[in-house]
Amino acid sequence: MTSSDATRLDPGVLAELATRGGRVIQGSPGEAGAGGEAGEAARVALACSRFNGGITTRLLSGALDALDHYGVPAQSVTIAWVPGAFELPLVASRLARSGEHDAVVCLGAVIRGDTAHFEYVAGRCASGISRVALDTGVPVIFGVLTTEDVDQALARSTGGESNKGYEAAAGALEMVDLLRRMGE
Fold this sequence. Notes:
By secondary structure, the chain is an alpha/beta fold. It has 6 helices and 4 strands.
């Protein structure tokens, strides 16, 4: 099952639940010029896999669209190319530990084939990316497609806000803002 209207978070429910707790902290990707929110103050690294490049370049384009939409200046964006999804965690670790980036977005595509490579690559990639975020305290976003076939990967990398690269970059900015609100 994929995300749908039935699984989306209802803002009204969020507001209602907030009345039942003491303190609610929520991040926002921000808008250009919306001082105090992520947007134009964020420094973001995009680590992108060359393998399945026909898909990953579409994810990268979506991520860059999101960063542009939220006011992140081009000079605050670093793009690092890696051979494949398996190499994303190492490069994400270097980028996160550099102190030059507020968030790292990992973009790749692992498409199931006839061999067991899918389980090895997708699982190791996901756990490595998660570990980098936990070890460094820097938001490291998993923007790696793990699909059954090329058609699914193409559908998730179309233009607009439904592009998973766009969603990953917006999520990175939201995490930057949330951590800032929490006082890191």
